[in-house]
UniProtKB/TrEMBL annotation:
UniProt GO molecular function: structural constituent of ribosome
Protein name: Lipase
Organism: Panicum miliaceum (Proso millet)
SUPFAM superfamilies for the chain: alpha/beta-Hydrolases
Span of domain Lipase-like C-terminal: 80-194
Length: 471
């Protein structure tokens, strides 16, 4: 009887936690969406009023620059800085005038903010990023597309946003959250020459990589949200990620052009539109699970597990001609009893507080094989509410890459080494809401942009890539 009561209590607590988590996440999503709509409506009203009054000017703070004008600035004389968003993120042109990076792109006149799939896999996003910059029709790769059950080709960029991009005209890349892994995989693909029709690509097209709260080694939150730790891929029947799965599938199935122009999860190449598959196709995706990204595992969450990160990292290298920087965030602290807890209720985003607490206490299931040799639960306790601080400093899993903790920005920098700094902030401090980030927001982005701009284009030899540190 006692076991039944205990099971019932645990079930009730689990259901309550899921309801609260789903309500908080959906509420925040609608808040961001509503804020963007309100800003667009306000801007349209201002324009309409000025036009009615006969004014020929444009309201202050209303963006007027076109992509052609922006591209003209990127003449290759100064390497551009490419800001790559994370999961559920968006680039320039989505959500109206809202900036994922909270306006940080305005700190430099040579910045690009690509719009990539917000829930697509690291592989698919890396392919999209290449063609966004270079131009042409997105090619996800013949073998990958066949294995994952989606179309080989995606959208076409008639003109790349940085068509000059090559070894002599490289770029700086800054990735937030999952965006950091997208950049690393893109650089490896450039080194391996994986883009058809571009025979001369190399890792030297990337001058620097900056990871901001980057998912370099995965996250235990993926398991808390619903991925089974036993395989790092399948989902529990009832979990927050199931809500995400159903919502994103219905979003793409409805295929409302005006809505998708505003925000897009990025699954068009899976062909889930109602115009293509009808009701039966929707049932195949949602109920039978026989098609779509969630059937094949070709979406972002499996890549954010520790196993998924280890699988990706197994082929990625730290290259000797590239500068690497990492800003790892932490919003937890140790108590006098040695336990890890969130460091202040008011300093953690409401979206993240519950997960920060859960990540402090989460333990890998005893019956499941560890995700890598030497795994310890205590290494993964510190977190920022979305990612573990241990995961964000530098690539560690399955092999350790060369790294140096940085306390002083004045020390000389060398390529081929991950310079990392731990910042006391949560995962949302440097995106969406600049006011919430406060002074620290500007300090971090000023440091990132300063690092990029003080790096000249060196004489970059082409030795073998730096292997993970075996010492």
């Amino acid at each position: 009887m006692r076991k039944w009561v205990r099971a019932a209590l645990l079930g009730a607590l689990g259901a309550a936690e899921l309801l609260v988590s789903a309500a908080v996440h959906l509420g925040y999503a609608f808040y961001v969406f509503g804020t963007a709509v309100a800003a667009d409506v306000a801007a349209s009203l201002v324009k309409g009023l000025m036009a009615a009054s006969g004014g020929g000017g444009v309201a202050k703070d209303v963006a007027v620059g076109s992509e052609d004008e922006a591209a003209a600035v990127l003449d290759g004389a100064v390497p551009p800085i490419v800001l790559v968003h994370g999961i559920f993120g968006f680039g320039k042109g989505r959500l109206g005038g809202l900036s994922y990076f909270a306006g940080a792109e305005e700190k430099d006149d040579r910045v690009l903010v690509p719009d990539l799939g917000s829930l697509t896999s690291v592989h698919d996003r890396a392919r999209e990023l290449f063609y966004y910059l270079k131009g042409g029709r997105v090619d996800y790769g013949e073998a990958h597309s066949a294995a994952c059950g989606h179309a080989r080709f995606g959208r076409t960029y008639e003109r790349g946003h940085y068509p000059l991009w090559d070894e002599h005209h490289p770029a700086h890349f800054v990735g937030h959250s999952a965006g950091a892994q997208v950049i690393r995989l893109l650089q490896q693909m450039l080194h391996d020459g994986e883009f058809a029709g571009h025979a001369t690509t190399s890792e030297r097209w990337v001058l620097s990589v900056t990871s901001l709260s980057g998912a370099l080694n995965g996250s235990t939150r993926a398991y808390i949200d619903g991925v089974r730790p036993e395989d790092g891929r399948s989902l529990r029947p009832v979990c927050l990620l199931q809500v995400c799965r159903v919502g994103s599938v219905l979003y793409h199935w409805l295929d409302l052009p005006w809505l998708k122009r505003y925000y897009d999860f990025g699954f068009d190449h899976f062909g889930m539109s109602r115009r293509l598959v009808g009701i039966r196709g929707l049932a195949d995706v949602l109920i039978a699970g026989t098609r779509g990204p969630f059937a094949t595992g070709d979406w972002i969450l499996p890549d954010l597990t520790i196993q998924g990160a280890a699988r990706i990292n197994a082929r990625l290298r730290t290259f000797p001609g590239t500068f690497y920087f990492s800003y790892a965030t932490r919003r937890t602290a140790r108590t006098w009893r040695g336990t890890t807890v969130p460091s202040g209720l008011l300093r953690i985003h409401p979206l993240l507080f519950l997960r920060a607490l859960q990540m402090c206490r989460w333990r890998y299931p005893a019956g499941a094989p560890p995700p890598y040799e030497g795994y310890r639960d205590e290494d993964w306790e510190d977190n920022d509410g979305a990612l573990n601080t241990f995961s964000m400093t530098h690539p560690r899993v399955p092999d350790e890459h060369p790294s140096v903790p940085v306390e002083d920005d004045g020390r000389p920098l060398r390529p081929g080494i991950w310079y990392y700094r731990i910042v006391e902030a949560d995962h949302m401090a440097f995106v969406i809401n600049r006011r919430r980030g406060g002074v620290q927001f500007d300090l971090v982005y000023d440091s990132i942009f300063r690092n990029c701009r003080r790096l000249c284009l060196p004489d970059r030899p082409a030795p073998p890539p730096t292997l993970p540190d075996q010492s």
